[in-house]
Amino acid sequence: MTVALVFIIVLGTLFSLAFLTKRRFGVLGLALAAGAMLSNLWAETLTPVIKDAGVMVDVPPLATLVATALVLLPSVVLLFSGPSYHSLLMRVVGAFSYAALALALLLEPLGSALALQGVSVDIYQFFVDNRVYILTAGLIFALFDILSTRTGSHRKPRKH
User: What range does the domain containing 100 cover?
Assistant: First the structure.
């Protein structure tokens, strides 16, 4: 499978999930960042534990699946609750931002699992070279989205 096809499948799936659930990007983006941190801390430790539990996978490598699951799990859990968008335009922008940020965070695990050759190397390298910019823009947008989220008012009822 080519890198472009894998990236399109990942982007399409994550975009669809975020768009259909109408969840705000801020919460999902910060959950992706938390998942990336958990993946960095625990993927190497959990992979042998999962392998010893009897899970056998050849393609993609189990380490790739564990790292990917750890990155995505916090945000996937939050897809089912939390603040949501009401505007169609913001749903599209938020869903695309979620998919792009997730792809940028999954570049490392996906790159270790894919056979890169020919044009695939160029496509992968383009995303790796621009990863810092994608991550920075995504996290800044997530923070602004969180700041613009309005919560319900907690007024005390007036006494008569």
Answer: 3-148
Q: Is 35:71 a contact under the CB 8 Å cutoff? A: yes
- Backbone region of residue 118 per phi and psi (left: phi > 0; alpha: psi in -120 to 50; beta: other values): left
For residue 133, tell me if it sits in a domain: yes
pLDDT, tens digit, 9 for 90 and up, residues 21-75: 999 999 999 999 999 999 999 988 898 898 888 888 777 788 888 999 999 999 9
pTM above 0.70, yes or no: yes
Quick check: is 130 in a domain? yes
How many domains does the chain fold into?
A: 1
Other C-beta atoms lying within 10 Å of the C-beta of residue 153: 5
Residue 156, domain member (yes or no): no
Q: How far apart are CA 128 and CA 120, in angstroms?
A: 12
Look up residue 78 and give its two tokens: 């939050």
Residue 73, C-beta contacts closer than 8 angstroms, at least 6 positions apart:
35, 38
The three-class DSSP label of residue 84 is: strand
